[in-house]
Design goal:
One of its GO terms (molecular function) is metal ion binding. Belongs to the iron/ascorbate-dependent oxidoreductase family. This is UPF0676 protein. The protein is an alpha+beta fold and about 375 residues long. The chain has one domain (about 30-320): Jelly Rolls. The chain has helices spanning about 45-55, 70-85, 90-95, 100, 135-140, 150-175, 205-210, 260-265, 315-320, 335-345, and strands spanning about 30, 60-65, 105-110, 115, 120, 120-125, 195-200, 215-220, 225-230, 235-240, 245-250, 255-260, 275-280, 290-300, 350-355, 360-365, 365-370. Helix 1 (about 45-55) crosses helix 6 (about 150-175). The radius of gyration is 20 Å and the shape is globular.
Length: about 375
């Protein structure tokens, strides 16, 4: 991992809440237990425990990932600089083509999404798998971030080549496939489109919070294969647990919060769960005024990977579940990502269900549910 290459303001973590809330009880994956030159060795009890957790909850914690507290803190400092150290003019100049191309690469401004007529207060800066090539750097990174590009790239590569790869080994074994089976679907550098993101959640006005019942990011599934979230102190993330109750995710210093997305759900025949989650107003009033900073890695399969249940997996086959008209119209990972990016948060053609608390819409021939 890189050292510090540029002098930028240090991020000050918000105070941690000392109150108890209805927290989700999530399993923890000790990544140091996955060993071997190709991360092919995983204890059978780990495969069983994590497989059950991902099939039941869809969310886990991960520890012992090989990154120090200071390396993680540095990324939150860079996230802060990506928003506070870049002018609004440059954010507009390097804006993502979200509606035009279904691509989050670049800056997403506040107000792009809507919930109950209220525009969001979230901005983020996202980088795709091909953002670091010499010809792409100047088109994607504003000048204020130029001294940090190598450092950001190295951190991104560590997430992909070590953390993501280890998780894919575990999931391959869960699906009763060879250890490298899923990695083979994600390791083509020419087809990489994983998304590394810095996000900043600004506190909305009290009136806006009332209109959305405190929901700041609508309940959704992720679109990708595996999502990595670096834990931060503000209690705000909720997951919809198997008993249909929203529960908070507890902050675990230096840990990762990991969940699966649509792509993994589809290729596992629905066995592995892509859990609904959302961001809400902090239940601890002392945390409400603070901005919530986020560091994410949304790991993907190769662009051309078809999202159809893996025929070689007896686990995927045993579910008897099919998607996209029995696979005849299965999109690639890239096609599904683009279609969901374009549609998300745009108040499109949705059917209200469950008394107005849930909405569904058809995307690419598959039903997608949004939870308010």
């Amino acid at each position: 991992m890189p050292g510090i290459n540029a002098d930028i303001p240090r991020w000050q973590y918000p105070p941690t809440s000392d109150k108890e809330f209805d927290y989700a009880k999530l399993e923890t994956l000790d990544l140091s237990q996955i060993t071997g030159s190709e991360y092919e060795n995983v204890p059978a009890e780990v495969v069983q425990k994590i497989g059950d957790a991902f099939a039941r909850d869809g969310f886990i914690y991960a520890t012992n990932h090989g990154l120090s507290s200071e390396q993680i803190h540095r990324q939150f400092s860079i996230a802060q600089h990506a928003f506070d150290g870049v002018s609004e003019a440059d954010k507009a100049r390097y804006a993502a083509k979200i509606l035009e191309e279904g691509d989050f690469t670049g800056y997403k401004p506040r107000g792009h999404w809507k919930l109950r007529g209220v525009r969001d207060q979230i901005e983020h800066f996202s980088l795709g798998g091909q953002s670091y090539t010499p010809e792409r750097r100047e088109k994607i990174f504003p000048p204020a971030l130029a001294p940090l590009v190598d450092e950001i790239e190295e951190f991104t590569e560590y997430n992909h080549d070590h953390i993501y790869r280890k998780i894919l080994t575990v999931l391959s074994l869960v699906l009763k496939l060879p250890p490298n089976a899923l990695w083979d679907l994600a390791s083509n550098k020419d087809e990489r489109f994983d998304l590394f993101r810095y996000a900043l959640y600004h506190p909305p006005s009290p009136d806006e919070d009332v209109k959305t019942d405190g929901v700041r990011l609508q309940g959704h599934t992720d679109f990708n294969a595996v999502s990595l979230l670096y834990s931060q102190p503000i209690v705000s993330l909720q997951v919809l647990m198997p008993d249909n109750v929203w529960r908070y995710v507890r902050h675990v210093p230096d840990a990762l919060v990991i969940n699966l997305g649509d792509a993994m759900h589809f290729i596992s025949g629905g066995y592995l769960k892509q859990t609904i989650h959302r961001v809400v107003s902090p239940p601890d009033a002392s945390q409400v005024p603070y901005r919530r900073m986020g560091v994410f890695y949304f790991a993907q399969f190769n662009r051309s990977t078809r999202l159809t249940p893996l025929a070689a997996s007896p686990v995927a086959a045993s579910t008897g579940t099919s998607f996209f008209d029995n696979g005849r119209k299965s999109p690639t990972a890239w096609e599904w990502e683009c279609s969901r990016v374009k549609a998300y948060g745009q108040d499109g053609s949705k059917k209200t269900i469950d008394g107005g608390h849930e909405e569904e819409e058809m995307i690419g021939g598959e039903k997608v549910v949004h939870y308010n």
